[in-house]
Structures are given as C-alpha cells and as structure tokens.
Amino acid sequence: MTEASTNSPKKRLKLAGLNPWSLGAMAIAALVLMPIAAVIWIAFNPTDNIWPHLISTTLPRYMRTTLFLMLSVGVLAGAVGTGAAWLVARYRFPLSRWLEWLLLLPLAIPAYVGAYALVDLLEYAGPVQTWLRDLMGWKTSRDYWFPEIRSFGAAVLVLSAALYPYVYLLARQAFREQSAATEEVARSLGSGAFARFFRVGLPLARPAIAAGMAIAMMETVNDFGTVDYFAVQTLTTGIFMVWLESNNAGGAAQLASVVLVLVIFLVTMEKVSRNKTRFFAMTNRHRAVERVTLRGLPAVLALIACAIPFVMGFALPAGVILHHALKNAEVWQDAALYEALWNTVHVAGIAAVLTVLAGVFMVYGVRLSGRQLPRLLLPVTTIGYAAPGAVLGVGILIPLAYFDNWLADMVEAGTGVDLGLILTGSSVALIFAYGVRFFAIAQGAADAAMGRVSPSLPMAARSLGRTKGQVLLQVYAPLIRGSVGSALLLVFVDAVKELPATLLLRPFNFETLATRVHEQASLENLGDAAPAAILVILVGLAAVGMLARANR
C-alpha cells in the first residue's frame, strides 16, 4: 500500500472509525443544536446590550412569575394526574373503563384553546354570569362578586387541565407495573387505602411522576397563547415584547438564554432524581395488582374525581368551541380557513417526514459508528424538545436572516438577479424549527425501535453481501415501521399545535390553524376562531386515539 493511498481522506476517515453514516449523524446533530448555540452566542454578543436594564426592571418580574407559574402548574397537574391514575389503576367504579381513556383527551386540545373557551364561558357577558344575574335579579357587577377570569389563577387552572395527562399517562403505567406482592404485604401489615397509596404506590411511582411533572413544567414555560391571553407576563411573553415591540434581538436572546438555563436545570433535576430513585423486582414472576370494586359513596366520589379533569380539560373547551363553530356556520365557507388548513398540513407534514427520516438516519449512523462522540451527541439533541418555541425562534431567525441576506447579495452581485429572502421569506425556517423542536420524538422512537431488533439480523444480512443502506431498508425498516409511523403522527400533531415558533418564524401573510385561532381569539372573535380550533382538535384526537391504542 502506497503512502498516498494510506493518507487519502477516505482511508483517514475509516481509520478514525467514521463513515458517511456517522458523519451524517453528526451533521444532523449539529443542525439540531445550532439554534441553541446561536441563542447563546447572540446573548453574549448583542448589538445593543440591554442586559443591565433588563436586570433592573423587567427580568425579576418575568422570572418570578415564570417560576411561580411552573411550580403551580407542576404541583396541580401532578396531583390531578397522579390521583386519577391511582384510581383507574387500582379500583373499579362506574365508567372507570371509559374514563381510563377519556382522561387522555385533553392532550388533543392546545392550552390556548382552553383559555379562550373558559373566558368565553365565564366572562361578564358570558352565559354563566348572565344566567346568575337573571336568576338572582342582579343588575351590574357591583351587585355580586365573581372571580377574575383573566388572571394568574385562571392561567394555572387552564394549563394544569391541559397538561395533567402527561403525568397521568406515566403514573398509570407505573402503577400498573407494580407487583401485587407489595400491595399484599402492606395489607397484611394493616395499611389502609390511603396508607398504601402514600407509603407504597407513590414512592414506587415517583420517578414516573417526576418525569411527567417535568414535562408539564417545560410545556408551561413554552406556552405563549394562554399567558398572553390572560395577561400573565412570563419570560416567553418577555421575549416577544423585547424582540417585536422594542426591536432588540440581543435582549430577546438574553431572555431566551435565561429560559434555556431554566429548562436545562429542570431536565437535569428530573434525570438526577430518577437516577437516584431506583426500584428492582426481586422475582421474575410478576403478578399485577387486582383492582378493587368500589360501591356506594366511594364509587361516586371516585367517579367525580376522575370526571372533573376530563370535563375541565376536554369536554368544556370542546363544547364551547363546537357551539361557536356550529353557531357561525358561514365561517366554514371562508377561503382563508382552508388556506390556513393547507398551510398547516403541508408545513407540518414536510416537517414530520424530514424530522423522522433525520431521526432514523442519526440513530442508525450512531449505531454504525461505535465511537464515543456520536453516542454522546445522541441524548444532547433531545434538548430541542425542552427548548420553548420562542427560544428556537430567536436562535433560528437571526442566523438565517443574516445568511439569507448574504446569499441574496452574493447572487445579485454575481448575476444581477435579486432572489429575495429564500429561507426566511418562505416556510423553510418554520419547517426547520418544527424539526428541531420535535426531533427528540423521532429520535427516541427510532432508538427504542432499533434497540428491539436482534443484532443477529443485520449481521446476517451483512454476511450475505448487503450494504449498510440495504440493511436499513430491508431489515430495519419493516421491523421499526410501527414505531416510525407513530413518531410521524406525533411530530405532525405537535407541529400543528405549535404556536410561539410559528408566530415568530412564519412568512409574511402566512397563516396556520394555530395562528388563525390565536389572532381571531385575541380580537375577541371566538366565532371566527372556532372552525380552525375544531380542526386542530380533530388532528389532536387522531393522535390521542393512536396513543391510547399503543398503551392498551
């Protein structure tokens, strides 16, 4: 072998254990992490540094409100989700089989839709207060007291009702997997129902509950529509105000970096708590806990306790929105609605396909590499899911805008043709944001599915002369098809509901269903917002149905 062939780029890559698959995996990881890195760089290198001004004025208020909102939603969603999961996993009562799946339905409704419905129902001119005035003979609001609807407390209630299913789903699975032996030992020692829950069931399920609460709190940080509608000033609303109203991208990046630190702290705490709390089965003969049949008052109380979250999280907002959608039937004929529907479907569809393909490619490339660096990048890329849409908007739009303008100037200087803004002037930036935001779903599904494939199958295919690409298409693809399909649908649905990133990155005069709902409801025009909200809910219901089927 000659020295030239030994030092060729291809040979050097092979000696380093790298190949096109592992290089592609690292390139995908770099693209996913780019917006996060851009936010940090812009925050430390702002054009106009307003950090001292933020610290002395609005940042403490934003930070205090955000932390209090996160903790309040986390605690309430955790209590509701855990309590409902324990009841349906341990007891039989009227409609318990139905409620086991109905409790998942709030996942189909974005929190901001629930906020619009609650205000419409309970505001001064709404049906509840109007009925009270007619019933009691009250004339004005000075004749009676009614809770303030657009308030911090209402925001906590709406967000908790929308996000408790994350806790419920994980806690229910954890309670199901607990052994009947522990329950029987607790009974033999004289522990009642409450003692068994607090001393046995809850400690064993604590890692799953902590993970669900962490997701709920991260989604709370990401929320913009609900807090904006209720006039609750959080770090996310601050990003919009500093960037769009004050026209200060550096200040927005600095606020975004604070949000990022907060989210990373949440993720780290959740992982640390989970790693320090581990429980192991002492026998391989697992026997599930037998559910107890409730009768009389306990059965009624259990039914009410499980029905309230379903009503607040799904039945009430869906009923209000459906009423407005039927009452304003002429809105269904509006061409702008179907244009928003087409924009939503094609942008979310492209994002879902590209994200899932990138996730599969990256996981496969990391598995082929066998090197430490690609394996370390695999979990790091999940940070995009934790990063709020507003943070990603800052990290994507500013670098892409610079690149777009540079590219347009170069082309115009060389050819005399003005291409305009190719990336930020189209839906490319929006598709990229969806991909980064929900890459963790695709990557996690692909990693789990490939992990279930026996290593002997791809090894046998390679021994028969199949290339690495053929192994992926002919061996892995048929076996991971179900998981990949689920990830495709979940990414699509989450992209349909995403609001903060869409508001920041959409092209001029480009409406999606989410932005149409937000803008019409912000103008107090719930009738025009209702059809778009119904379409968003229907898409969400399809995903929840798939999720329920997968978790039977």
Can you describe this structure?
This protein is mainly alpha-helical. Mean pLDDT is 83; it is low at 279-284. The N and C termini lie far apart (60 Å). The protein is 76% helix and 1% strand. It is globular, with a radius of gyration of 26 Å. Strands 1-2 form a two-stranded parallel ribbon. The chain has helices spanning 3-6, 9-15, 20-44, 51-56, 59-90, 96-102, 111-122, 127-136, 152-177, 180-188, 193-222, 225-229, 235-245, 249-276, 297-327, 335-369, 372-380, 383-386, 389-415, 428-437, 439-451, 456-463, 468-497, 500-505, 513-522, 526-550, and strands at residues 91-92, 292-293. The protein has 2 domains: 16-44 and 322-552, MetI-like fold (Orthogonal Bundle); 68-229, MetI-like fold (Orthogonal Bundle). The longest helix is centred in the middle third of the chain and has 35 residues, at 335-369. The chain contains 26 helices and 2 strands. Helix 13 (235-245) runs antiparallel to helix 14, helix 16 (335-369) packs antiparallel against helix 17 and helix 22 (456-463) packs across helix 23 (468-497).
List the helices and strands and how they pair.
Blueprint: H1 3-6, H2 9-15, H3 20-44, H4 51-56, H5 59-90, E1 91-92, H6 96-102, H7 111-122, H8 127-136, H9 152-177, H10 180-188, H11 193-222, H12 225-229, H13 235-245, H14 249-276, E2 292-293, H15 297-327, H16 335-369, H17 372-380, H18 383-386, H19 389-415, H20 428-437, H21 439-451, H22 456-463, H23 468-497, H24 500-505, H25 513-522, H26 526-550
Parallel strand pairs: 1-2
Helix pairs in contact: 3-14, 3-16, 3-17, 3-19, 5-9, 5-11, 5-15, 7-9, 7-15, 9-11, 9-15, 10-11, 11-14, 13-14, 14-19, 15-26, 16-17, 16-20, 16-21, 16-23, 19-20, 21-23, 22-23, 23-26, 25-26
